[in-house]
Amino acid sequence: MVVPTLNRNCVLIQSLEDLLAQEFRPLEILVVDQSDEPSQALAQLVSRHTEVIRWHRVPFRGLPAARNYGWQHARYDAVLYVDDDIRCGSKLVAEHVRALRLPRVGVVAGGIEQATRVEPASDSPGAFNTWTANPTRGFAATSEREVDHAAGGNFSVWRSLIEGLGGIDEMLQVGAALYEETDFCLRAKRAGYRVH
Fold first, then answer.
1. pLDDT above 60 for 66
2. pLDDT for 174
């Protein structure tokens, strides 16, 4: 798992506790920390779980760059990206790996329930409108289906695919409304992979 973070240690610690409780093994949690100052609480948590958590303090800023750094330093074939403020059950990784193993699946769009706001219902969660260039969210849906894109807070990809497509586009920074994960998913689909 790759967890990019920037000055959000108060929520990061709880997220890491949830991620440490995953049933799936082998497990790696790679924290790409862009924070101004190192967190003492994070250092203590990492010191208790050195076999699972790898903490990388990096000098750059930007979510696309952190995502690329993550897959380039990951140990395993499947890379799961999660936000630093997620809450999840113990089967998150197992479900991603199961879905990635489906035929021609290159990217898995994990479900997201917003803690601070209700996600509007959608008849087509994860769709991309090519006419308006707008992605539809609706990732609170519980049914499995093929989609056009994934939300950046919970998606997984085969490392070989992300490497083959040249990684995440780092030009999609603040001011470009990000959408780096949407761009990546659309490129994966053009390459013949499914986004599930």
1. yes
2. 64
